[in-house]
Structure prediction request, 145 residues.
Amino acid sequence: MHNSRFTVAIHILTLIARNSGSNAGQHRAFSSEAAAASVNTNPVVARRVLGLLRKAKIVSSKSGRDGGWKLSRNPKAITLANVYQALEGDEPMFGMHASAPCKTCPVGKNISATLSSHYNKAETVLRKELKRTTIADIAREIQRA
Prediction:
């Protein structure tokens, strides 16, 4: 199943960063409705993602007329690895079978161990790359596009 939460989170954080300037909380808060409109999704989806980001202290929210969402830290200090961690925790990036494969099948009895080795290598490289890229980097790249 395709999960786009990570992409939605990066999209929303980049919107907020562009709205905030270079310092966390510098400008007005951003509404979940505005974020959802940019992502082209339901505000409930945006609020769920923002809730996970708030729990990880990446964003904060304020209720009321002047309320909305703000970054809790400078966009230069928010890596894509931080965002991924906020959404997925310590779950492996690549999932294995939901049920154990058939142990009498020549492929089934060896597939998990074989794939685990490849997945672990790929995950190490991917996590390293996610640590190198910040929300500020994404915002800057979008500005140039």
About this structure: The radius of gyration is 18 Å. The CA atoms of residues 4 and 10 lie 10 Å apart. The domain at 5-91+133-144 is CATH 1.10.10.10 (Arc Repressor Mutant, subunit A).
